[in-house]
Recover the amino acids of this structure.
């Protein structure tokens, strides 16, 4: 078993950027069934860089939150960023089967479905994601960008157990708001997701993206950083996050516990 913490990123794949070196330890493709890492969308590479890029191409200026972490990339989104719920469920089951092989301790999901569609499909997805949480994996999901109305948190960010991350609204997006349709408070916390620099899928360059898709991996990377030094349970991680949040002058259904103090969370 690999000694380093691994973060599984369920997304559009990953480009083998120099900032990841040899830390892409597994790749699973549910779109084209390819064996080797690629990312024809760019979203998954950007998210992965926020989590674990080591800043090599930028001489240390642009780094992820846990540059020592390994990455497991699972491609469920196509080049347009679209995907199917069945593939995400399959990805969750693959992680469950392989978590011990790769030492997967964190899962990041920076996309989501709206609350429209078949309820049974949404329920099956939520159950598959919460199963990972029950297996001692800290699962982090984006709240989505479909706010500002209530009940606008994206699935699977609606899952009761997992950590759902929103963002203070940007100029070009509104962070998803709770509560869920089951009246569960979501998101748990917020982190700025506007104009985040990270790895690009074009050469060893960088790009800028905004949205809760960028907020979630900041939290995932911070959690991986903590777990690299201390074996905490997902519940303990959740309580530590809550302790390190501060309420802001924002609607409660947008901010949850409040804005995360990342340095405090990592260093306490």
């Amino acid at each position: 078993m690999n000694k380093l913490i691994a973060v599984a990123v369920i997304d559009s794949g990953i480009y083998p950027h120099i900032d990841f070196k040899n830390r892409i330890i597994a790749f699973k493709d549910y779109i084209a069934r390819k064996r080797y890492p690629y990312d024809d969308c760019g979203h998954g590479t950007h998210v992965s860089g926020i989590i674990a890029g080591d800043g090599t191409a930028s001489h240390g200026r642009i780094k992820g939150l846990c540059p020592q972490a390994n990455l497991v990339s699972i491609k469920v989104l196509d080049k347009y960023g679209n995907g199917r719920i069945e593939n995400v469920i399959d990805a969750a089951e693959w992680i469950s089967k392989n978590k011990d092989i790769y030492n997967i301790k964190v899962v990041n999901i920076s996309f989501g479905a709206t609350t429209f569609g078949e309820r049974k499909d949404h329920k099956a997805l939520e159950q598959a994601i919460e199963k990972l949480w029950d297996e001692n994996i800290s699962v982090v999901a984006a709240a989505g960008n479909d706010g500002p109305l209530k009940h606008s948190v994206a699935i699977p960010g609606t899952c009761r157990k997992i950590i759902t991350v929103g963002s203070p609204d940007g100029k070009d997006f509104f962070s998803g708001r709770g509560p869920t349709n089951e009246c569960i408070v979501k998101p748990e916390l917020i982190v700025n997701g506007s104009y985040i620099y990270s790895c690009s899928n074009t050469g060893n360059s960088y790009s800028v993206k905004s949205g809760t898709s960028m907020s979630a991996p900041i939290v995932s990377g911070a959690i991986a950083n903590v777990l690299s030094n201390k074996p905490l349970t997902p519940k303990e991680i959740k309580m530590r996050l809550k302790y390190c949040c501060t309420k802001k002058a924002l609607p409660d259904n947008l901010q949850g516990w409040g804005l995360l103090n990342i340095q405090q969370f990592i260093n306490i």
Summary: The chain has a mean pLDDT of 94. The radius of gyration is 17 Å. The longest strand covers residues 6-11.
